[in-house]
Amino acid sequence: MAHTLASAATCHGSPPIRMGWSPWLLAAGLRSIRDGLREGFAAYRQYDHLTAQGIPHDTALRRAFRVSSN
C-alpha cells in the first residue's frame, strides 16, 4: 500500500508532495483564530449592551453582527 501511495503522489510527472509545517502558516492560522475570537467577543459585548438597553433579541443580534433586515 505504501508503494501505491508513493506512486500516486508522483503520477503524471508531478513532484511528490512534501508534508510539513511552516512557522509562517502556523502564525497565520493563529492570527486568524485570534481575529475571529476578537470579532466574536466584540459582537457579544455589543449585543449585551443593546439588550441591557431593552432592545429586543432579534434586533440586537442584527445590530451586533451588522446584518441587514432584508
Main attributes of the structure:
70 residues, mainly alpha, 0% strand
Fold and architecture overview:
By secondary structure, the protein is mainly α. The protein has a domain of 48 residues. The protein starts with a helix and ends in a 6-residue tail after the last helix. The relative contact order is 0.07. The mean pLDDT is 82.
Q: Largest sheet, described in full?
A: none
**What is the helix content?**
55-70%
Structural class designation:
mainly alpha
Q: What's the SSE pattern?
A: HHH
Distance between the termini: 54 Å
Rounded to the nearest angstrom, the radius of gyration is 23 Å
Brief overview:
The protein has helices spanning 2-9, 23-52, 57-64.
Topology:
Elements: H1 2-9, H2 23-52, H3 57-64
Helix pairs in contact: 2-3
